[in-house]
Amino acid sequence: MFLSEAETEARLDDLRRQRAALDRAIAEHELYLDLGRRLARSGGAAEPARAAPAPVPSPDPVPSTPPESPRAQPAMMPAMTLATPPAAGAAPAPVPEAAPPAGVSARREGRRLIEAAEAILAEAGRPMHAAEIWERLAARGVTLPGHDPVAALNTRLWKRAQGGTVFRRFGDAVYGLAS
Q1: Do 69 and 131 sit in the same domain of this protein?
Q2: Which ranges form a coiled coil (predicted)?
Q3: Domain span at residue 22?
Q4: What's the number of domains the chain is made of?
């Protein structure tokens, strides 16, 4: 049996929608893993005891018809438990007073990233593409979350160049220091 061109196009569209849904689910899982690792590193939450990994279920066969919308699919994210509730009558765990609010450390990291990018541009003495800046940042041990750190860096530099800071945009993803 041969498929018509319209049927083939319809199946391709279905598969593309399924792939997009899987890509979103993968990105969400990676985001949760990264968040958990950051919290464990910063001491923001007690690290849970390591248990044996849960068995991975075998993938279901690809359905012949896609769901009506991505929202109609059941959530594929596992439930995240950040803390266990205290037993009845037990005192709650003490909260460290020196811990900064959640957004403060992220802003601090962002400032460090921008300061490092500014130092790299000052050392180079010329405008550089965001990919070049990222290579030098990565060599210094700087990390950025996400699938494309160059795009994330480009966005941050672009926003700051619009804000009239020390950065100036010279072209597509090319930045230098304002004179």
Answers
A1: no
A2: 5-32
A3: 1-44+62-78
A4: 2
